[in-house]
Amino acid sequence: MPVPFLVLVIGMAVELGKIGIWRPAWELGPDLAGEAESLGYGTIWVGGSPPADLAIAEQLLDATDRISIATGIVNIWNSPARAVAESYHRITAKHPDRFLLGIGVGHREVTDSYARPYQALVDYLDELDASGVPSSGRVLAALGPKVLRLAGERAAGAHPYLTTPAHTKRAREVLGEGPLLAPEQKVVLDTDPERARATGRGTVEMYLRLNNYTRNLRRTGFTEDDLAVPGSDRLIDSLALHGSPEQVARGVEAHLQAGANHVAVQFLGDDVSTSLARLAEALR
């Protein structure tokens, strides 16, 4: 069995490993989960705002023995806190120390009820507290300093999405040394730059229409020209790393060197199974 990518975050009951994978819920199933586990990945992040029943997380845990499952992320506007808490307790009773609840406020552009998001997130955390969900068992989707600080105070840490190692460095400075920092990073295992950029751009450009991401990317140093849809080559090269497995591995590890505890890798392209194995080998 391959040696897992190990990491320990003080105060967390769930061991994530250093490297995990991020996939939309509708692209996850028992076979892929078992493959990721056998290759030594530490965590599967369930993306795409899974519903409050968290059934997909339970299914993946049932199908595996060791790998952790995290949500990246449960949307607070769509999934009531009490229902999520009930699911959390059901899952953790069945699979102790293997489930991490990631929550976030989503996007104003696609949420009719979006209002006072920071306060709504605080209220949601209060409800999780009242329902017995420990702060050590949850993380927040966080990009800017205010929510990053909240992630360090009211959760185990932060799960930033669509970021770079430069953001990871700043996020670690805001969080301090203790809390978890687990950024997502898109990758394309393809050594043809134009083809790889086309693959990356096909996913990245939709996020350039969402203000919370573009605001954060401006803070990170990208210009209006970079952010103009469909995104400059410089932007795409940063947000969707491409190249050989060894080149991509170095880009993923740059997050760890910048202060991340864990990196959630999102593979872009058609052959996810092969990409999982090739990157796992390069990361050893």
TrEMBL record:
GO terms for molecular function: oxidoreductase activity, acting on paired donors, with incorporation or reduction of molecular oxygen. It holds the Pfam family Bac_luciferase. GO terms for cellular component: cytosol. InterPro entries: Bact_Lucif_Oxidored (IPR050766), Lucif-like_OxRdatse_MSMEG_4141 (IPR019922), Luciferase-like_dom (IPR011251), Luciferase-like_sf (IPR036661). Residues 31-126 form the Luciferase-like domain. This is LLM class F420-dependent oxidoreductase. It comes from Saccharopolyspora thermophila. The lineage of its organism: Bacteria, Bacillati, Actinomycetota, Actinomycetes, Pseudonocardiales.
